[in-house]
Amino acid sequence: MEQDNNGIPVVSVIMAAYGQEEYVAEALDSVIGQSYQDWEVIVVDDGSPDNVAEIVEEYARRDLRIRFYHTENRGVSAARNFAVGQSRGEFLLPLDADDTIERVYMEKCIARFRECPETDVVYSQWRFFGIDTHTRDLKPYEDYATELIENRIFVSAMFRKSRFIEVGGYDERMLSGYEDWEFWIRFLDEGSKVTMIRERLLNYRQKEASRNSDAVRGQNAFDLELYLLSKHREKYNRYYGAPVSCLRFKKKYYNLMYKRLWYCLFKKK
């Protein structure tokens, strides 16, 4: 087991826990059961109206590496930022209070950072559980240009706290989703080194309704994407050009594809 000087943990697990009394114990148990044990957990309930506080405080009494904070409700980004402010570790690992990690997740992430110190982010494949266990593979990180248009890194990746502070943490104005994607857009750049562990080491809970599932639907997704585009307009323009030009190209492409499809289906034999 790796131990840091002066009792300072190497990894700080950051857990926002609004309305998660049904699941938070599972999340904490998955951290406690890690093969790598040099960690702390910072849990913030973000003004949760349920019994999250009672559950987490009991865990904190049994394990001094777990600390609990109550804040007013300001959203998951503010809760995570507050938690990071209380943390002491070299590395951060955000973990949603309804998800869990497999026993070797921390160990394998830390091993990658120690083997390749130039690494910026380490994450793994995931496994769906809950109401839907049919897991679609998470596409591995390809490059920064691709990340601008398709987030391929889940929130529970491991990264250095120093870089988190440098880029300013999560955007607290993003209350309805995509805050992790926006964070990666600022955290990464063309030279970033991102590693995916090909094992399924994050268990991602599927529920009937969640903030993430709501974010990808209809007008909310449209508004969130416009926010990303506006905030990072220079980056998007550099890689993809002006938005209307992109839409115009897309329209021409689809028109061409429809013409080809019509020709293949209805041409005279």
Please give a quick description of this structure.
By secondary structure, this protein is an alpha/beta fold.
What do you see in this structure?
It contains eleven helices and eight strands. 35% of the residues are buried. The protein is globular and about 75 Å long. The chain has helices at 24-32, 52-62, 76-86, 105-115, 144-149, 161-167, 179-187, 211-215, 218-231, 233-240, 243-266, and strands at 11-16, 39-44, 66-69, 91-94, 100-101, 121-130, 158-160, 194-206. Strands 3-2-1-4-7-6-8-5 form an eight-stranded mixed β-sheet. 43% of the residues lie in helices and 18% in strands. The mean pLDDT is 91. The protein is α/β, with parallel strands linked by helices.
Outline: globular
Which percent range fits the helix content?
40-55%
Low-confidence stretches: none
Main beta-sheet annotation: 8 strands, mixed
Average pLDDT level:
91
Kindly, what is the distance between the CA atoms of the first and last residues, rounded to a whole number of angstroms?
72 Å
Q: List how many beta strands DSSP finds.
A: 8
Main sheet strand line-up: 3-2-1-4-7-6-8-5
Give the helix tally.
Answer: 11
Strand percentage lies at 15-25%
Helix and strand succession? Answer: EHEHEHEEHEHEHHEHHHH
As a whole number of angstroms, the C-alpha radius of gyration is 21 Å
The computed structural class is alpha/beta
Helices, strands, pairings?
Layout (H helix, E strand, L loop, with lengths): L10 E6 L7 H9 L6 E6 L7 H11 L3 E4 L6 H11 L4 E4 L5 E2 L3 H11 L5 E10 L13 H6 L8 E3 H7 L11 H9 L6 E13 L4 H5 L2 H14 L1 H8 L2 H24 L3
Parallel strand pairs: 1-2, 1-4, 2-3, 6-8
Antiparallel strand pairs: 4-7, 5-8, 6-7
